[in-house]
Specification:
heterodimer, A: about 400 residues, alpha+beta, Cytochrome-c3 Hydrogenase, chain B, 2 domains, five-stranded antiparallel β-sheet, three-stranded antiparallel β-sheet, 10 strands, about 50% helix, about 15% strand, B: about 170 residues, alpha/beta, Beta Polymerase, domain 2, five-stranded mixed β-sheet, two-stranded parallel sheet, 7 strands, about 30% strand
Chain lengths: ~400, ~170
Amino acid sequence: MKYEIPVGPIHPALKEPIMIKCTIEGERIVDVDVIASQNHRGVEWIGMNRNNPVQSIYLAERICGICNFCHPACLVMAVEEIAGIEVPERAEYIRVIQSELERIHSHLLWAGVAAHELGFDSLLHYVWAVREKVMDILELINGNRVTKAIMMYGGVRRDIKEEHIPKIREMLDYYKQAFNKLAKLFLEDKTIKMRTREIGILPYEEAIKLAAVGPTTRASGVKKDVRQDMPYFAYPDFDVKAITPDILTGETIGDTYDRIVVRLLEVKQSIEIIEQALDNMPSGEILAEPKIIKLINQIKKAEGEAIGRHEAPRGEDIHYVKLKAGFEYLYAWKVRAPTYINILSWRTMLMDMQIADIPIVAASIDPCLSCTNRVTIVRDGKEEILTADDLHRLSVQKTRRLLR
Amino acid sequence: MNAEEMMQKFQEAGYEAWLQEREAGVRKKVKKKSLWIKVDKEKIREAVESLMEWSEEYPHFSIISASDEGENVELNYHFALGYGKQLEEFAVTFKVSIPKSDLVIKSITPLVPAAIYSEREIREMMGVEIDELPDKRHMFLTKDFPDGVYPWRRDETAPKETNKLYETWTEGGK
């Protein structure tokens, strides 16, 4: 007997709208269908019909609250390439530091969510307390924790001042110490291992075929990282190497556990990149053209097309931009966030898993949708509504069962 | 195979192809390269097949973008090659122009399974019919989105008074 479980339209693992329709036989998932059409904000339309290119930077920032640096970064890179805007050296370094700060806070946020999905709420609170340190630094250098309004065509809007540097270094030392504790908590815990090892496997070949990006694909052994393959900003100076789980564990399985390993190692990598950036930061201007009206006119005269690509915490983010001379808005703008392509892998990961595994497996790609609050189980034609709390309870129960 | 060699391969096969470059880096300068190739709409599958044959690795599918060019709709199929190796990646884009009088193109999903979401999106946002697409449901727009309205178009099928599009919507659908 087959049942269909729609997880969504507003979800358990994350608080954004998407629907995962799972067909189950007993406890085993035999088919998965993802229905994304729950909430479309028409961001691209606004950029193509209402906003001037500078306003669109702030709009791009609001595509995702967590990746609020990544989307403007892609847009800005594409427009800079078309309009031939050169970026000052110091700005390129600040952009690298901002990207890596974002990666640290995003990966820690994810680690907390993952702990919560498994029923380890004490670990969630611990990780999020640790995360506050980087949020404080973001606030210190940007004036805001999220939607930092730091990006601008031809540079950045705020400098990293001399007095900020000791505080950033203090944060880095703090994370170096916290890293060992976090690694121990996440990677050596018997229960976390039982809940994530061999759960939600994405094999190497599938990761390549389904065009997965970011930690999701790297955990399957694909060494794909834009910072390594096609570096931008000041990244060529840093010789970034893509992180795969075998660096730490000696093997690559491509399961949920490996995705935890990759993200943890990337936090460490980000710390090293920021340290190196602070040591070698060039001095000078941070913005090529401080007068916004002049800048808008320069972009208005530009014609052409380009792709902006950036390694966001969740994977490669890509924007296509087309400008036409004399046209007030972006003539064409296509945003592809990493989750767009990564949700394709859910089907492969969830196959043959159990209902209680849906939250952690769905969360393991670190999806960023905008999310779901209830689940309907159709049993003998009758609908039963499971709330996010019920689903969360099922997940916690499985952890408790395994503990016995 | 690097970007120049790939460009040559496509030029030899009769395609119009060009490279676009942008410098990156402060102390160590590198060039970010993107290869652009014009493809007739009948030849899209052939072009993707050639790309798969000539590249050493499985081409990484990124996205399909689109723009309304008046008489035509232009689709850009973005791929990445040479990934996984330091500094060796480059972007490849197939540019396809489709006349509005015959807005149909063959699906590339049978060749590149990752393209399915993007083709569904192009279908609903641009109104391009994708031939042989295995799944033709809406991707991002809601089920009740009006027919014949395509948000990315710049002609009479573009949404009018978009901000009012949902004004008729009421709780419970009444």
